[in-house]
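Pipeline run #58 for the internal structure catalog. This entry was flagged by the ingest filter as a single-chain record with no existing model, so it goes straight to prediction. Upstream metadata was stripped on purpose; only the residue string is passed forward. Reviewer on rotation: M.T. Logging verbosity set to normal.
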Amino acid sequence: MFRGIDDVDWASMEHAYGSAADVPELLRGLASPLPQERETALDGMYGAVHHQGDVYDSTLASIPFLFALAGHAGLPDRGGIVELLASIGGSDDGDTSGDDEEGAGDGQDEDFEDDNEDDNHAMAHAAVRAGAAVFLDLVTDGDPEVRRAAPSALVRFHGEPPRVLALLRERLRDEPEDGVRPALVEGLGLLARLHPGSAAPAVDCLVSLCGAPHDPGLRLAALGQLASCAPHRLPADLVPTVVALLHTRSQRIQPPNEPVRTSSDTLIGSLRRMRPADEEGAQLLRTLHQALGARTADRIALLKGQLSSRNTADRCNAVWMSAGLFREWRAAYEEPVALIGEQLGSDEERLRGAAVSVLEFLFTLAAPAADRLTALVESGTDFRGHGRATLDRPLKALARCGDARAVPHLAEVLRHPVVPNETGYTIGHLGPAAAPLAPLLRERLAEVPLGSPDTYDRAAPLLYGLGALRYAEAVPEVLRLLHGTPRELRSRDALVKASARTLGAFGARAGEAAPALRELLTGENAVTAADALRSVEGDVEAVLPALLGALAPERNAGGRRAAAEALGRAGAAAAPALPKLRRLADSSEVWERTAGACALWDVGGDPRPVLPVFRDAWRQNPYTRGTITACLVRMGGAGAPVHDLVRAELASPRRHRARSGGHGSHDVLDDELLLRDCRTVLEAA
């Protein structure tokens, strides 16, 4: 397996963390007799040699040894090695999910690095294709895990599609393991997508597998692949068919008798421990959901069917399937969200945890589950995790959906000596209903030590919460932080910025803070201080020098953008800044252009230089749309020439951040806020 490995000059090569001198040890670890060592080695290959899909010279040099390991009969865990080889070889199915819509740098060094990366990926793909004959034998290997991993690799890299198709059909007839057959079906669907010349017989085979007498799992697998490669061949009664098959399959399958896995602290080990109870069922339904894409009505109906199953694993899979639907597509989700809320009453910890995890990121969309969340919060069940000062997750979800029933429970949290850091940020979602919490936030802020390494981590969320509630009675406590924290304190600048921002949120009632804010006008936080001082005193002229200075070309881009936003809030009184704002609106950087254009309107009231910038930024970077739409709300009828963008956004079924590969914790919230503002723009017009 390792013939010639010591002849390779690994030390001259690199991987994600520098020298590749340790790669031979990782490769040998894949053949270790100890399961934990094999898992650690595979984790190291993904973590360094193939880090986040990258291909280095050491990755290329590893390919022959990985093929030797994969083809060594009797070696355990070779299925993971086959998957690694397929990942290194790259995708042949036109996947562009990694494209960056925000644009890339245009420097020559970056172009050179990109060219090198492209060359490495091309060489890796060619190398895996050159060795793809190995996958022919692995489809009939004695190890079911290897047979499960082989079909996808074979289809993607073998150069003779008719031969591959014949082999897949033969194996579907002869394969003894129920758990391997769905992988063969997946191979048929992939072949139909990648090789149009062989698509017709592959699709015909899939259609034949969708009906009796095939078992429910195989039929579900075939329907999922058919949806992705030939949706016109799907049955008209797709959803009831799938739900019926799902329920029949659930009645037949036995609880998985999984081999004992190692508990090593590796990414691979963590992923294995996170696998769903019915991993095959999860994969079958995930494939179907992804293939249905924008067919949200079918997907919602399918979720409702899954969530009505008597089988806990089916319902748990449905909850996790819903996450991708909610994050990517816009639709009326009241019914599935309410059904997910019903899962909070389950005795199954895994199911309750899945439901809480999904409801956490839905924010206002979680409202149909609010009653169930309240009941769970009041039950006292602990969802915080062991040994961590974190906010109880059902309580966080309840507060994030704006339900006032969270307030008394958050008050209890704030009465504890140690307050979870996210509490202050969570309170901001409750609006005026959270007003009773303000005195408690103030008390906790007064207790934050001034010279501790975690001063900022503890103070910043409390400051945010106080600012959101406009609780000016806390001015003395905020000034205590400004005046009392040592200059050498870690994150002091960030703490000063958070304090100044909170004082600005207090407005005119924070008059006693004006001297402290003036002292900051010449420091690192001059823009934030100037914005806050303008809010407190209402004197734009006094803060203009600081804001104009921050717009200078030699200042950093983030500072220029923040200064433009502050000038916009100052309104017409900031008219001396108009020449610099016009230059900013002509910047080569999309966020600077957007901020400059918004400020141009707020200060000058002339839509002519603003609207072309908005149209360009809207199309170039979807993340700017929330900022642009908020400005269009302020513009009223003056923004009418770009209202076509707003109408198109409201008509789009897809969430705006999904186009950029989003899926952050606030993507759904940001999209819902964008839709709200879009509606406001058109209603006002």
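catalog note: The first helix runs from residue 23 to 29.
catalog note: The chain has a mean pLDDT of 91.
status: ready for reviewer M.T.
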